[in-house]
Amino acid sequence: MIQSDLDLFGEKSQRLAAHTVLFPGFALAHLETLLDALRPVLRAAPFRQMSTPGGQAIAVALSNCGSLGWVSDRRGYRYTSHDPLSGEPWPALPPLLAHLAREAAQAAGFADFVADTCLINHYLPGMKLSLHQDRNERDFSQPIVSISLGLPAVFQLGGLARSDPTQKVPLNHGDVLVWGGEDRLRFHGVLPIKPGEHERMGSRRINLTLRRAG
Ligand code: MD6
Ligand code: FE
Prior knowledge:
Elements: E1 14-17, E2 20-23, H1 31-44, E3 61-66, E4 69-73, E5 76-80, H2 95-107, E6 117-123, E7 129-132, E8 144-150, E9 153-157, E10 167-171, E11 176-179, E12 188-190, E13 205-211
Antiparallel strand pairs: 1-2, 2-11, 3-6, 4-5, 6-13, 7-12, 8-11, 8-13, 9-10, 9-12
The structure holds N-[(3-hydroxypyridin-2-yl)carbonyl]glycine and fe (iii) ion (FE).
Residues 132, 134, 188 line the site of fe (iii) ion.
């Protein structure tokens, strides 16, 4: 059970849009357990660089766990059951991670969220993620749960058109962002990470995005 349950509907959550809710510090109570669960995942499926279908390197290093994993290469953006690097199935989704995602989704108003994939993004200072939509999943009625660790970031939350204005949302260590419903296809991105040193995570930002892809 998540310790901060009592706070979930109170001042500890911020509604950013109709179906987009930020839970500051939601993951902090479980941080060490979470990191313990991620260590073997990243040993089996290390962070690696991928390229866009156009052949450009994606700066942010990526890995996955779950029954599916998001990949990008010359053939496009898609989910695969196996890690192309090892040829093995992606490492299993740690139960704690699935549980945390379910609790956060529930608190944001999405009942019974069952994640089948977690994309793990590794940012170094200076790295950013350009505005994009997440549309490789099968069912857009399923929300996305995003956990931020390490260096702070500024998340850009846009609209349904690329040219719509964006809100700047600070994402700090331990914050959990849930979105879905009519917000599911909003454009979004991450501004360049400012140089710095996080006391637990070092000079990096790690983002975990949990989804139901299949
Ligand atoms: C990141 N996140 O925060 C990248 N997508 O590093 C995403 O692209 C994202 O945080 C959909 C929903 C939440 C997210
Ligand atoms: Fe995204």
